[in-house]
Structure formats: C-alpha cells, structure tokens
Amino acid sequence: MTTHAPHASHTVTLPASLDEAVAALTAMPAAVPVAGGTDLMAAVNAGLLRPAALVGLGRISEIRGWQYLDGHALLGAGLTLARMGRPDFAALIPGLAAAARAAGPPQIRNAGTLGGNIVTSAPTGDTLPVLAALEATVIIAGPGGARREIPVSHLLAGHEMLHPGELVGFVRVPLLHAPQAFLKATGRTGPGRATASVALVLDPARRGVRCAVGAVAAMPLRPLEAEQWVASLIDWDGERGLVPEALTAFGDYVAAACIPDPAPPEDGSEPATLPPAALHLRRTVAALARRALGRALS
C-alpha cells in the first residue's frame, strides 16, 4: 500500500511482510524505515531530517512477537518496549524487561521498539547494555529473502553495518535461566535519559558473569577483566554469595575500566586527574555495578 500525504513530496509505503519492506527499501534507496518513530520524529521535528520517503513497519506481524528456538528466544524487532515490560516477558528475559520498563514515560514505551533501539544506537538506549551483556545477535533481512546474523555488539560498534535495503528483523537472545539485573541513573527523579546504566547477567552454565555499562560511551562497554575476576570468587555450586568488600571492589573495578584515569604525560610531568564530572560519573557507575551484582546474587 502506498499513500501520498497532501502537500508533501514524500511517499509512505506500508508493507505487510519483512520481505516486502526490504523490497520497498531496495526500490527506494532514499526511503527511511520507521516503526515506533520515537527517534525519527524527534529528528524530523527538530529539522534535522527530511526523509524523501518512509517505509512503515507497523503492519508486519511477524516481527511483533517472539518464539523459542534451540535454547534461545527469537525476538521480533517490532516488539514494543511496553510489551517487553510485561510479566510474561520478564519471566523469560528479566534484564531486558527491566530495561524496557525504565525506558521513559508510557508514550515512549508504547511506541518505541527493540529494533529501533538497536538501529538508532543512541548511547542512552536502555536495552543496549542488556543486549551486550546477553551477547545477543541480530538477524538481518536483505534483498531476495537473504538473511545474515551478526553479534549486536558488532552493529553497535560499527564493525558491521546494514547494507542498502537491509532491515533488522529479529534478535536472538540466549535463555540463561539465571538472575539478571538492570539499573540506571538519570540525574533526576522519574523517567529520563540515563547518565549511566549497568546490565548484569549470571551465566551458571559457563560459570560466568557478564556486565555491560551504558550511556558513558558511544556504545555499551564490557569490563571483561572485572567479569572474569568476580566470576572466580563466586561459589557456583553453593549459595553464590559474596562479601560486601568483594561487591565494592567489583564496582570500583568496573568503573575504572569504563572511565579510566588519563594517560600519564609523555614528558614525565605531573599526571592529569579526572575532572569532577568524570569522577562523579565513575562513582555512579561503581555504585550501579555493585548494586546490580548484589541483586543478581541475592
């Protein structure tokens, strides 16, 4: 279906399937795909974007649900944040549900989608650190029915990009059947953009801890050494508890890895120190990481 808005030069196409959407994008290289439109419309309203054509994804039912597949959940890119925040989804992937519930006011959660979060790749996207910690992958639909799968971290880091005519169709998430936590700081009371966020998941099968820090860099950061260190302290066959000192040390380890001290000057002069704002952000990350691990282990 194609409609022409009055007094406007752009075309709106409303495909009924993922392959139809890919075909529309292939036929109109200047077209912009839109699902919830929370970021797109903000850019349009600010005068930063004037799309020549739009391909609406709201009628594609195949990407608005999820299914189980070989120990994974296959999530449609059109899943709304509000849908992911419901109890049945929280029982499946609690960390992602917690992030979805924290993603702004109801009108944003009702419209915003999982795929939109990924493709927009805003540093403050609440679902992104959870997807990074879960080591999720994205399934990309391309022309001619082609499908390819890449780690979500590669897409967020720009190591691999969407090619012309491609769309993120699904997200594959491993079902760990273990505690997960997501916490964020907004700098004010109530819903808001994160100044820092931490996702933490336990992986008992691999005796691992996975942590990702969001909003402090262009993409979520994984403090791998801190993960390995704290995983070695956990009694995976017992109660999995840690003493408060270990939780505090983990938080400091994560924060220092994500917000490191300035490199020492090559001329041997007095080392520079972090500015107060960066020190405050480091303390915030440390507190979030400590609390997230404590909640996951409790």
UniProtKB/TrEMBL annotation:
<keyword id="KW-0285">Flavoprotein</keyword>
<dbReference type="InterPro" id="IPR036683">
    <property type="entry name" value="CO_DH_flav_C_dom_sf"/>
</dbReference>
<feature type="domain" description="FAD-binding PCMH-type">
    <location>
        <begin position="4"/>
        <end position="178"/>
    </location>
</feature>
<dbReference type="InterPro" id="IPR002346">
    <property type="entry name" value="Mopterin_DH_FAD-bd"/>
</dbReference>
<dbReference type="InterPro" id="IPR016166">
    <property type="entry name" value="FAD-bd_PCMH"/>
</dbReference>
<keyword id="KW-0560">Oxidoreductase</keyword>
<protein>
    <submittedName>
        <fullName>FAD binding domain-containing protein</fullName>
    </submittedName>
</protein>
<dbReference type="InterPro" id="IPR016169">
    <property type="entry name" value="FAD-bd_PCMH_sub2"/>
</dbReference>
<dbReference type="InterPro" id="IPR016167">
    <property type="entry name" value="FAD-bd_PCMH_sub1"/>
</dbReference>
<dbReference type="InterPro" id="IPR051312">
    <property type="entry name" value="Diverse_Substr_Oxidored"/>
</dbReference>
<dbReference type="Pfam" id="PF00941">
    <property type="entry name" value="FAD_binding_5"/>
</dbReference>
<keyword id="KW-0274">FAD</keyword>
<dbReference type="InterPro" id="IPR036318">
    <property type="entry name" value="FAD-bd_PCMH-like_sf"/>
</dbReference>
